[in-house]
């Protein structure tokens, strides 16, 4: 069963989501990947505000393909989240509630997810053309000069994702592997 | 001697870049369909369905299968009786990449000076080009858009010869296990054995271009491929790492003789979007 989730994420919503749940997200998500995370981190170092109010928000680790004429956005699947691990605990402490990407997170990120009650979701890597259909609006809101790495504000409807790390310490990557592993 | 013009090479590379990024090869599709039938995990089945639906959609709409349109790796097999006219061969290839990625609405992912400025080159050049000189009077061009997620999980093991076959099995299984969900499983596992460090990495990378699941013509190597696939699919990682039976679609091994002191093993992981396209001029 797919759970319908409205964004931004509230504590009540997060309490209901567990590792392995399939969700469909509707609302606003922000897009940022490697270079944008570095810049946001540098901004915090200088005591400057982030380019958007991050509280209760969700960041999608993604850099889209260019939109063809008539498209809202080009293919738009997740990138490997681990590269953002160095920056994520700091953003979670600032109030970030949701992260969407693919691949494993570091112990520090998982600890921050539990401590500050946030969530890590995966969308299917490589299903980028399909995922782009759930994106209804896309605009660049910061770091335009980064091109495919600029920060975007997306409006999504029924964006498909799977809960990997929940507020209770659940971890689908661990649980899934353990369930299907056959001893050598 | 046969003349091939630089312009024709540019046109061909541009077309191959687009086709590789829009159309998942038939052998990959068939392998994914077979995996869907055999997958026990419900999440795994749904994930494979999404991957197959995505491939159909990308083909119909001629859009990128994945937003990561890769580093453009280009293999050239140049017949020794070919003469390139009207321009520089590598410039012609890079111009093809430039045109293909621009006109094809493909993402440009290359950055300059990778440890400091990292400014996007805005046309996905330079391509990574490997050239072999072979007998004949044709030019074979293979375009492999290699995504960053899988590429970052590449491993090289310089084993001692004493570790032999069991050492190879342990190393390859370890590489796939540690990569986990990162390289977008189900993956095609390319393995190079032998040669020198750089030779075995080239073998591993080239092995992922083989028709998915086609065994090595060498019986002993084919048996090792089969055993490795079984061990890898017992890891439980599954499609996208959500847990399941399909962690790899295939293991392809290429072997080269090695120095008396060496047993190099390289593992190249290709994501399920196993894109590549060839042409012969």
Describe the strand arrangement of the main beta sheet of chain B, using strand numbers.
Answer: 4-2-5-10
CATH architecture of the largest domain in chain B: 2-Layer Sandwich
Low-confidence stretches of chain B: none
Q: Helical segment tally of chain A?
A: 6
What is the CATH T-level topology of the largest domain in chain B?
60s Ribosomal Protein L30, Chain: A
The coarse overall form of chain A would be: globular
CATH top level of chain A is: Alpha Beta
Largest interface: A-B, 49 and 50 residues
- In helices, the fraction of residues of chain B equals 25-40%
Oligomer: heterodimer
Terminal CA distance of chain B reads 14 Å
Give a verbal description of the structure.
The complex is a heterodimer of chains A (184) and B (281). Chain A has 184 residues and is α/β, with parallel strands linked by helices. Helix content of chain A is 26%, strand content 27%. Chain A has one domain (2-180): fumarase (Alpha-Beta Barrel), CATH 3.20.130. Chain A is built from 6 helices and 7 strands; from the N terminus they run E-H-E-H-E-H-E-H-E-H-E-E-H. Chain A has a 5-stranded mixed beta barrel. Chain A is globular. The termini of chain A are far apart. By secondary structure, chain B is α/β, with parallel strands linked by helices. Chain B has 2 domains: 2-20 and 65-146, no CATH class; 149-274, 60s Ribosomal Protein L30, Chain: A (2-Layer Sandwich). Chain B has helices spanning 6-22, 26-38, 42-61, 89-103, 148-151, 164-179, 197-207, 219-233, and strands at residues 2-5, 71-79, 82-85, 128-134, 139-146, 155-159, 187-195, 248-258, 263-270, 277-280. Chain B is globular and about 55 Å long. The model of chain B has no long low-confidence stretch (mean pLDDT 97). Chains A and B meet through helix 5 and helix 6 of A and helix 3 of B.
